[in-house]
Amino acid sequence: MPPGEELATARGAAFRMQRAYPLGHQHGPTPLAAMLTVEPELAAEVAGQAALAGVPHSRLCFLDTETTGLVGGAGTLVFLVGVGTFTGSEFRIRQYFLRDPGEEPAMLEALQSDLDEAGGFVTFNGRAFDLPLLEMRYRIGLRRDRPLSRLPHLDLLFPSRRLWQAVLPDCSLGTLERHVLGLERQEADVPGALIPALYLEYLRSGDMSDMARVAYHNAMDVLSLVSLAVQVLTRHRQEQLGSLSAAEALAVARWHHAAGRNESAETAYRVALLGESHHRVRVQTLRRYTRHLKQGGRWDEAIVMWQEWHSLSPEDPVPCLEIAKYYEWRAGDIDQAQRWAEAALISLTHWDPDWRRDQAWAAVEHRLRRLIQKLNQQ
């Protein structure tokens, strides 16, 4: 186990390890200091939590836990908590280790001083896992409510999924480290899935050797939170837009659109369309951008995009139906409307025969009957 210190608390002795990294320490493509240049207001916008704008970097707590179970629940212990903070000219990681389950009240008591200083959290899936589990352990171990979930929180899992799920095999932290941060863990690391079993083996045997590897894993996770936060947040800066991949630009466009920033969304959609992209990303971009164009009444542009969408996804009836609606209700060209409604019906022949296809087929046939009626009346 890395060197540590025993802390005296009102609940007994707790064990804490501590290490510090200079701000110039490189973990991924940028030094840790890059996080200090990211505006708190940007973090608040990306997280969708306005209160983060008032949290200075010195009060951000980068938190990661190791537990006896990956699902959680009342029987799951938090046996290692890594807390990273910017303090002066360094980034400090404190790790609280549960040497024995009986020490849990003392560990939680010692950890509380760091949590009390936190103005907000940065985690990876901490909203659903780390923070609720810590809250539960405080209720069980200390009979004390610690409403950690009420603090402003940047959970990097969600913006990471928005940015990269279309082009990566998954959005686990390990995958993001390799593909976004360009990191490969050293041999000292241990796969996260093995950690619960390793801790239980330590409790059985008393052998601390694997716990050193777990502590290394936890510290690297905390450092990766800093580097990933920089990559996620800076990709949402307007001046960075031109350097984004098509998938990233689409994600930023969706983010702007959801916030009602239609002009910024427009710019990001255009960057996504100009970039090289996977087939799925291109189709998603056309799907969302044509909706944007339709809402703005920009029919000539939408028609072109709907036609490209149809050429890329001939099994999707939606672009055909959108064009059919345009010709019927906007252009008054019933012949063209019928042609595109028939194209939608052809698209449905690619579907497996089930209730969904039957329902969609009936809707298109209803449209065609109405169009034929209109043609006969001309």
Describe it for me?
The protein is α/β, with parallel strands linked by helices and 378 residues long. The protein has 3 domains: 4-234, Ribonuclease H-like superfamily/Ribonuclease H (Nucleotidyltransferase, domain 5, 2-Layer Sandwich), CATH 3.30.420; 241-313; 319-378, no CATH class. The chain is built from 14 helices and 7 strands. The protein has a 7-stranded mixed β-sheet with strand order 1-2-5-4-3-6-7, with helices on both faces. It is elongated. The N and C termini lie far apart (86 Å).
Tell me the layout of helices and strands.
Elements (H helix, E strand, L loop, with lengths): L3 E6 L2 E11 L17 H8 L12 E8 L10 E10 L2 E8 L6 H14 L2 E4 L2 H16 L11 E3 L1 H8 L8 H9 L13 H11 L3 H26 L11 H13 L3 H13 L4 H17 L3 H14 L5 H14 L2 H15 L6 H23 L1
Parallel strand pairs: 3-6, 6-7
Antiparallel strand pairs: 1-2, 2-5, 3-4, 4-5
Helix pairs in contact: 5-7, 8-9, 8-10, 9-10, 10-11, 11-12, 12-13, 13-14
CATH architecture of the largest domain: 2-Layer Sandwich
Radius of gyration: 27 Å
What is the number of helical segments per DSSP (H or I, 4+ residues)?
14
Task: Estimate what percentage of residues fall within beta strands.
Answer: 5-15%
The structural class is: alpha/beta
What number of structural domains do the residues give? 3
| Order of helical and strand elements | EEHEEEHEHEHHHHHHHHHHH
| Helical content band | 40-55%
The spatial strand order of the largest sheet comes to: 1-2-5-4-3-6-7
CATH class of the largest domain: Alpha Beta
In terms of quaternary structure, the protein is single chain
Mean pLDDT: 93
What is the straight-line distance between the termini?
86 Å
Assign the CATH topology of the largest domain: Nucleotidyltransferase, domain 5
